[in-house]
Each structure stands twice: as structure tokens, then as C-alpha cells.
Amino acid sequence: MHVEKINASPYDSNIYLINKKFLIDTGMDATTLIKELEDHLDLNTLDTIILTHCHFDHSGAASAVAKESGAKIAIHEDDAECLKDNSASAADIFGYKAPNIEPDITYNDGDKIQITDDEYLQVIHTPGHTKGCICLYEPKSKSLFSGDTVFPAGSVGRTDLKGGSAEKLEESIEKLTRLDAKVLYPGHGNVSVDNVNGQIKQSHQAAKQLKYIQL
Question: Which of 22, 59, 172, 214 gets the most CB atoms within 10 Å of its CB?
Fold first, then answer.
């Protein structure tokens, strides 16, 4: 699996280009992202845009990139309608309207996204930050694309926006502690290879504390 990390602007999520065919999240800045992608590949070879969740800083540029490339847009089924909601997509926080995307593909927990003949991304439904948050795990390289569910150094995604739940987040991160993860590709911040399983366990403890605070 070949992964390239792209940041279109300081306010955008991390964007990951996998094998020059799959894009995980898009950020908000479509113009800059399209220019960046054109430096990496022929846009027509882009197959699927996988959104880890509906928030605008991850999804705002998806429609423009899909239109330019012909790529399909995919998201977990529980966040599909949120792409049309100003509040649920957090677009209003950034001063925009919801992306108003009709996804081509909707995922469920356990789905597999084949990226090569012998590599796939496992869809892990991790609600808490939003209802339809997902993480993506590639077993061969033991890579975890964590969206805004967990971040390096034991940090976790916020739960105070529409669709968020501290209780669900704690349950979701508990699932992630069962993985054997060697590389963490978070939705924001730096990629980490330093005791990733330990960092996820720290995030789980942080989520437990957050849950008790909000009870």
C-alpha cells in the first residue's frame, strides 16, 4: 500500500491518497486539492473518495473533486443524510452550507474496500464524533486511518457537535484497542508509528474520562 499525505490548507483535515486510486477525505479547499492531486496522478485514475465522516473540513471539497475526476463518493450510511444538514455537517461552524452530496456508495461496519489484489481496507464503524464515523484498517501493513475518532498521544475527537456521543466514542475506541496497529494516519496532526497500540489505549482512557464528565 502506497500512502501520500496531502494538506490543502491549515484548516482542512488530513487527506490521504492511497495507491493513486483512493482518496480518504478531501478537506474544504477544492482548488488547492485538485492542483495537488494533479501533481500526483491523472485525475481520471481516481476511483473512490472515502469520507471518514460528514464534517465539512473532511468533506467540503468532495463534490468538486468527484466532478473533476469522475470518482465515486463513499461514506457510512449513518452519515449520508448529514452531508445535507448545515449543523450535522458542521458546515455552519466554518461559515459554509452543507456539502449537499448524494453519495454513490454507503458503507456498513465490516465492509471491505479492495485496494489491490491482496490488500483491503476494513470499514470499522466508530460512532461518537458523528453517528457515522468510520476508521479504516489495512491488515497487511497494520495501518489505521482513524479520521477524528483517535489522534496521536491519546487524544480523541470532540463529541459536543450534532450527532456526537461521549458514550459511543468510548465504545468505539474500545473496539480499536483490539487491533494490532503499527501506523496511525489520523484525521488531523502527524502520522505516527510510535507504539500506536499504546496510543490508542491512552485514547480509550481519555474517552472514558470524557464519558464520565458528560454523564
Answer: 59
Interatomic CA distance for residues 65 and 199, integer angstroms: 33
Chain-centroid distance of CA 43 in Å reads: 21
User: Residue 138, Cα to own-chain centre: how many angstroms?
Assistant: 14
What domains can be seen in the chain, in order of their start residue? 1-107 (3.60.15.10), 119-215 (3.60.15.10)
Note down pLDDT in tens along the chain; length 215 residues.
999 999 877 889 999 999 999 999 999 999 999 999 999 899 999 999 999 999 999 999 999 999 999 999 999 999 999 999 999 999 999 999 999 999 999 999 999 999 999 999 999 999 999 999 999 999 999 999 999 999 999 999 999 999 999 999 999 999 999 999 999 999 999 999 999 999 999 999 999 987 666 55
Q: How many Å is the maximal CA-CA distance in the chain?
A: 50
Q: If DSSP codes are grouped into helix, strand and coil, which group holds residue 93?
A: helix
For the chain, percent helix, then strand, then coil, each to nearest 5? 35, 25, 45
